[in-house]
Amino acid sequence: MVTFEGVTKRYGDAANPFVALDGVDMTVGRGAITGIIGRSGAGKSTLIRLVNGLEKASDGRVVVDGTEVGQLNETGLRGLRREVGMIFQHFNLLSSRTAFDNIALPLEIAGFDPAAIKAKVVPLLDLVGLGDKSASYPSELSGGQKQRVGIARALATSPKLLLSDEATSALDPETTQSILALLKQINAELGLTVLLITHEMEVVKTIASHVAVIDKGRIVEQGPTFDIFTAPRHETTRILLSSTVGTNLPEWLRTGLKAAPSAGDRILVRLTFFGATAFQPLTAQLVTEIGGNVNILAGAIEEIAGEPFGTLVVAYPATPDVLARADRFYAATGLSTEVLGYVA
Ligand SMILES: Nc1ncnc2c1ncn2[C@@H]1O[C@H](COP(=O)(O)OP(=O)(O)OP(=O)(O)O)[C@@H](O)[C@H]1O
Predict the structure, then answer these.
(1) Which of 23, 185, 300, 319: CA 20 to 30 A from 85?
(2) Which of 4, 9, 10, 18 to mutate to test ligand 1, by most ligand atoms within 8 A of the CB atom?
(3) Could you tell me the CATH number of the domain that includes residue 313?
(4) Are residues 261 and 332 both part of a single domain?
């Protein structure tokens, strides 16, 4: 649906340019929900603004549904923006217009007559759960309701692609969940492709099927959310995800951790469960297998992009006999393991 091919974006003048995006290659699959994550200033907003032509690439191509955005004139850009809806962190509603009239605005601009506008806006109000708020002004709506108006407005011209710029960042956790559920519903029911940028990892974990990680203007990792979140390869991804996925070791454990064992030490192992292994009673089997001498130190089971994923940190004696038995068990069950170190 969207491809970035060698996209570079420089701000400032030629003598003193600032490179905000540096050779970005990326694909946003049709019908997918794709999240872009990265630190502040990494280039997320720049990336998304290239898609609807609010910014122009300095080098490379941004192609949206077969059309190269950089080649479009003003008329072409207006057409593109009917195909590409956008929602914002602060909703960007007109305070002097009711919910109905805010949603109607893009249709008025596109020249629809009042009857056609009504035929479009009324079902959209229902779709976003605001059938009874048609005549309310933004000041009379909650943050979540305002974002629902923003979503309905973005959908008014029946776009194929929805861009979301930190759309839930100003909302409380419960409202965030309801807006994410609405976006998921729209994606499933209307087949709308969604590209979202966020600094909230939970958002991506909850709704994005795919994710790209941007760092200093470069895409350092991209792929299915489950794969990236459960096995991040780039340091930036690990840091971004550290408080969201998996178990962080308690401070007392981390400080006492040694790289090599001394006599009598215990080995600390992180077990990772996903797919079929998430549903099997493997921990109980491990305890039986290595003779009961296992401590469970930390653990969590969560859902990533709709799939279960669990981690468990265990410790047991680092003796040759126990280690061999544990390794045989891991090989037989296909459990994924990582040795974290040794403790006295
Ligand atoms: N119009 C501009 N002129 C000059 N520099 C800019 C301009 N817009 C953005 N930048 C710079 O480009 C870099 C990327 O900015 P961008 O807004 O894309 O980052 P971001 O990842 O969206 O950050 P945040 O999460 O803080 O919004 C930043 O260093 C920013 O200062």
Answers:
(1) 23
(2) 18
(3) 3.30.70.260
(4) yes
